Amino acid sequence: MIFQKLTKGLKQGLSHHLPLSILLFSLLVFTTIASLLVWQKLNPQGGDLVAQNQEQLPTFSSCAELAQGIKDAAKNQNYYDQGILNILPTVQKTTTETGTSQPEFSTTNIQVEGVDEADIVKSDGTYFYIVKENEVLIARAYPPTDAKVLSRISIKDGTPKEIFINDDVLVVIGYKSAAIEEKGSTDQEYWYGGNNLSFVDLYDTNDKGKPILARSLEFEGSYDTSRMIGNYAYLVLGTYRYAYNNTGEVEGNENLIPQYRESGTDEFTPICNCAQIKKFDPIESSTFLTIAAVPLKDFEAKVNAETILGAGDNLYASLDNLYVANTSYSSEIPTILNKILDYLKPETEKTYIYKFNLDQGEINYQGMSAVPGYVLNQFSMDEYQGNFRIATTVGQIARGGGNASNNIYILDKNLDLTGKIEGIAPGEKIYSARFMGKKGYLVTFKKVDPFFTLDLSDPQNPKIAGQLKIPGYSDYLH
After folding, report:
1. How far is CA 211 from CA 75, 78, 173, in A?
2. Where are the domains of the chain?
3. Which parts of the chain span the membrane according to its record (predicted)?
4. Which of 348, 340, 401 is nearest to 371 (CA)?
């Protein structure tokens, strides 16, 4: 059908006596599309796996180069809906639920034992800590006869979103609507970030009736997600930048860098300098991704942070490592041919995985790899015995069947491919995934709900251990 329409168009061009150069160009386009269609038929996956194990991410040499990087990222950003830029949150937050089993008191539903996730309600068995509108309540929970609210922490200029508890330290994470006045700004400059301020407040709750604010940090950008490992809270924030002034020229100065402020100080300062900003390769977003390690036992200790130009879609954290996954959609033909490309699958997917080691508040980049397909959420990723496992979907489902399929990839500690399963459930996509030790579980869906059990005991030879098809679909496995 595609070839018939394209051929018809060429014949119409001949009948209207179009210039020879246009006809030759049309013939070239026709040949290119035909070649791509054959290639796509023979190569249904999104691309080959690539591993780069450099010790450091590349950095920018100057603020001018950083500004140019933001400009280039805006050009490289994917376009949808006839060219309208689709700006997504940096990291998708998975909604937490309460109670994973039947302990003496309920806890937050976490993915990895020892890696806590923030929630709106926390309990240590004796006390409840509850986020309620613009307050955080501390209440006695046990014994039930003594249950009562002991104190209320009012967040006057912000909105609390989630909390952690670490012994007698309460961590409150939230956002503020205040904007940052850029240093040295003029009428000619136009800085558009659209960023909130994210805050982290640490309270000493040794006296539950009189919590004391011990430290307050404010970061420019939107809070995405966090993890608490040991005595550190690791925050992930996204800061969008638009680096043009009113004359259409790129601005190059430290106003581009995400800012932060410590409690007791009036002015915001850059998290780092331009030459310390790292970049993902490829850079496909003008959003800065900041990973900040906040110490919870020493209120005066340094807050370490890594800031990278380039967004991420999903995050997974083990006790020792943090993985940021970012899906890249590569256009198959230049955008000048968009109208012709309406007949083709417009994009192929590849997910880039960036590994960071977490060690007592230190954040160290380990390497990068890429796998075909896109990732559903954090539960599609896992680390076990030093190997990283990831479940992806390639292509899309459609009424006529579509070209979707699903894959499992196992990468070693250096992010080199160890084993894989490809082509799972053709024509369907992953709706939920869970890795548990030597086993993995997938639910895919289109018309029925196939449930797959994966044997991952041999990282070099993963295989499907069994499957069951039932009506409906499931979007969560536990």
Report:
1. 49, 47, 16
2. 2-42, 55-310, 376-478
3. 20-39
4. 348
Rounded CA-CA distance 391/396 in Å is: 15
DSSP character string of 213-235: EEEEEEEESEEEEEEEETTEEEE
DSSP per-residue string spanning 347-364: EEEEEEEEEEEEETTEEE
Please name which of 277, 106, 134, 291 lies closest in space to residue 201, comparing C-alpha atoms. 134
- Spatial CA neighbour of 370 closest among 359, 355, 360: 355
The Cα 106–Cα 123 span in angstroms is: 7
Phi/psi for 7 (5° steps) reads: -65, -40
Directed axis angle between helix 2-15 and helix 20-42, to 10°? 170
Q: Write the single-letter amino acid at 47.
A: G
Phi, psi of 11 (to 5 degrees): -65, -40
The helix (H) or strand (E) run that includes residue 399 is none
pLDDT digits (tens, 9 = 90+) for 222-252: 999 999 999 999 999 988 877 555 555 555 6
C-alpha to C-alpha distance for 370 and 409, rounded to whole angstroms: 10
pTM over 0.85: no
Which structure tokens are listed for 82? 């006839």
Report the number of secondary-structure helices (H) and strands (E) in the chain.
4, 30
Nearest to 204 by CA among 215, 194, 212: 212
CA dist., res. 196 & res. 426, Å (int): 42
Alpha-carbon distance 441 to 439, whole Å?
Answer: 7
